[in-house]
Amino acid sequence: MKELTKLILEDMKPALGVTEPGAIAYAAAKAKSYLEGEVEQVCVAMNSGMYKNAFTCGIPNSSEVGNVFAAALGVVAGNAEKGLESLADVRSEDNTSAKKLIEQGKVQVELSGITSRIFIEAFVKTTNGEATVTIRDSHTNIVKIVVNGKIVLDKESEEVLENKEENKTHAIHNYTLEQLVKYVETEAIEELLFIREAYKINWELFEEGLRNPRTTFARYLLEKNGGKIISSNEQATASLLCNAAIEARVIGLDKPAMSITGSGAHGIIATMPLYAAYKVNGYCEEKLLRATALSYLVCMYIKEYSGKLSAFCGCAIAAGTGMACALVYLRGGTTEMMKHAINNMASSITGMICDGGNQGCTMKGIAAVDAAYQSVDFAMHGIYIQDVHGINGNTAEETMRNMGLIASPGMVETEGTIVKIFEDKLKK
C-alpha cells in the first residue's frame, strides 16, 4: 500500500455528530470506564479550538447542545469502545441523568489555552475512585491514562520530541500537487475502493437531513434544486447534497459522517459535491474515487499547516479547495488549472472564521460550494488571481502553505476573541 493511500485510510473515520462533542464524550466515557460507583465530579479541560467547536454544537440522541452536556452524557452513557461514535446508544433517560449531574454542579468544562493543537483532559471522580484521560493532537489519540494515582498508559513521555510540530514535517508535505495528481491517476483502483464507504455514510446522513423535521436549509435547498435530489443543475445539486448533510450533522441528528482531518464537515465538503458531479454528468465510479482521493489529499495538505482546530473554517477553505481541485480533475483539466483554482480559492475565502460547530456551518458550506464552482469555472477558462497577488505563492504548494499559515499562527488572536465572545454570551 502506497504511503498516500495509507494516509487517507488512516484519516477517514466515521463520526457521530460534530467531531468535538464526540471527542469530549469519548474522553469522559473512557475515564469513567475505569471506575465503579456514583459520579461525584467531572472536569474536562480542552484547548480553544475544541472548546469553541463544541460550544453550541448539537449532540446526537439529545436535544441539548454544548461541551458541558457532551461531557455529562459521555460519563452517563458513553461507550468508549465506539470512539467518536461513543454516544450512539444514548437513551432519553440518559439525557435526564446527564442534566441532573449538571444541575448538581458536578460537571465543569474549562479552557486550557488558546491553541490549534488538540488537547482534552477528562477527570472523573466517583465514590470508588478517580481517573484522568488525556488526548492530544487528534480527536481519539489517548496519550495518558491515570487511575487512582497509577499510570495505566503514558505515551506523552515517548512523544515529547515527536510532538513538537515546529520541528516535524507531515508526510503529505513531501509531495507536490503534481505528484498528488500522478498518484491518484496511477494508484491501483482496488486500493481506493475503501473510499466507497465515505459515500455510503455521507449519503445516509444526507437522507436523514432531508427527512428530519428539525432541518430547515435542507428543504429549501431541495426546492432551489427544482424539488429534485439530482437535477441537471450540477452546482445546485452539489449544494443540496453537501449542505443538507452538514445541517444534519451540526444539529446532532443520529447519523454519522465520514470525517477527514478529524472533521465530519471536512469529509462532507470533500466528497458530496463530487458525488453530485458524478451523478449529473455520468462519470464512471473509478473517476469519482480517484477524484475523491485527490480532494482528501489537498484538504490534508492545507490542514496540516493550519492545525486540526483553528480560528479559520478549514471545512470551507481546506476541504473546499480539495473539492475544487477534484472538480477540475473530473472535468479533465490539467494540474496547472488546479493550481489556478487553488489561487482563486486562496484569494477569496481564506480567512473565513470558524466560530464552532453549529448551524452556521451550513452557510459556510454553501459559501464553499459556491466559491469552489466559481473558482474552477474561472480557472478552466484561463482566469485566475496571479501569483504576485495577496497570499498566493509561486507554486501550488506555497499557496496551500500560506493558506494554512493564515490560520496558525496568523489567527491565534482571532481564536481568543471568538472564545471571549462565547464566554460573554454565557454571562448574559
List key phrases describing it.
two-stranded antiparallel sheet, 60s Ribosomal Protein L30, Chain: A, 428 residues, 2-methylcitrate dehydratase PrpD, globular, 8 strands, 18 helices
Summarize the structure in words.
The chain is an alpha+beta fold and 428 residues long. The protein has two domains: 149 residues, 60s Ribosomal Protein L30, Chain: A (2-Layer Sandwich), CATH 3.30.1330; 259 residues, 2-methylcitrate dehydratase PrpD. It contains 18 helices and eight strands. The strands form two sheets. It has a six-stranded mixed beta sheet. It has a two-stranded antiparallel sheet with strand order 1-8. The relative contact order is 0.13.
| Residue fraction in strands | 5-15%
Tally of DSSP β-strands: 8
CATH architecture of the largest domain: Orthogonal Bundle
Described by strand count, sense and barrel closure, the largest sheet is: 6 strands, mixed
Q: Look up the CATH topology of the largest domain.
A: 2-methylcitrate dehydratase PrpD
Indicate the topology.
Layout: H1 3-11, E1 13-16, H2 19-32, E2 39-47, H3 48-54, H4 67-77, H5 92-103, E3 107-113, E4 119-126, E5 129-136, E6 142-147, E7 150-154, H6 156-159, H7 177-186, H8 196-211, H9 217-224, H10 234-250, E8 256-259, H11 264-269, H12 272-281, H13 285-306, H14 314-330, H15 335-346, H16 360-379, H17 396-407, H18 412-427
Parallel strand pairs: 2-3
Antiparallel strand pairs: 1-8, 2-4, 4-5, 5-6, 6-7
